């Protein structure tokens, strides 16, 4: 996906009705020794980092349970859409653990330190509407009879992104992600570097021409 120039948006959904991702298999985990657990969790953390580093926008369609590592997967995405009936939580402390695949870092960056600490310390599960109210998800939608309401809303969101200039969207994502890691002055420099890369693109010229000619732009990602 990272290398496929035709990919414009990635939507993560589950093929299992009622479950986005239920997290680690604790029965499997119980058979591991300490070193194996450490290696396993390190691999999960690397996977989430790779998902977060995908150059195109990513959307998690949460139509059911997103618990533990399942919520960490959703947090690694750029945008999240949840059914109002979905259940989410970093529940690791209820099992003698703490989030180990990015949850302690991505959740506070998403909803703020105080709320993140409350959810992680208590291991509480929240529904889609509660998640929306605290900014954990971008949209909360009523579940439908097919059980894929979040996926359908995620597709609609993806279709809003598709007509926009692909390279500009990629540079926007990069500028935001890298800028959030540094002070604002450094972030402005990062934005400037990303903008500079966008200036010579054919899509920028097309955007200007389409505006002048009062027609929809036809972006090609170049």
From TrEMBL:
<dbReference type="InterPro" id="IPR018376">
    <property type="entry name" value="Enoyl-CoA_hyd/isom_CS"/>
</dbReference>
<dbReference type="InterPro" id="IPR029045">
    <property type="entry name" value="ClpP/crotonase-like_dom_sf"/>
</dbReference>
<dbReference type="GO" id="GO:0006635">
    <property type="term" value="P:fatty acid beta-oxidation"/>
</dbReference>
<dbReference type="InterPro" id="IPR014748">
    <property type="entry name" value="Enoyl-CoA_hydra_C"/>
</dbReference>
<protein>
    <submittedName>
        <fullName>ECHD2 protein</fullName>
    </submittedName>
</protein>
<dbReference type="InterPro" id="IPR001753">
    <property type="entry name" value="Enoyl-CoA_hydra/iso"/>
</dbReference>
<dbReference type="Pfam" id="PF00378">
    <property type="entry name" value="ECH_1"/>
</dbReference>
<comment type="similarity">
    <text>Belongs to the enoyl-CoA hydratase/isomerase family.</text>
</comment>
<dbReference type="GO" id="GO:0005739">
    <property type="term" value="C:mitochondrion"/>
</dbReference>
<keyword id="KW-0456">Lyase</keyword>
<dbReference type="GO" id="GO:0004300">
    <property type="term" value="F:enoyl-CoA hydratase activity"/>
</dbReference>
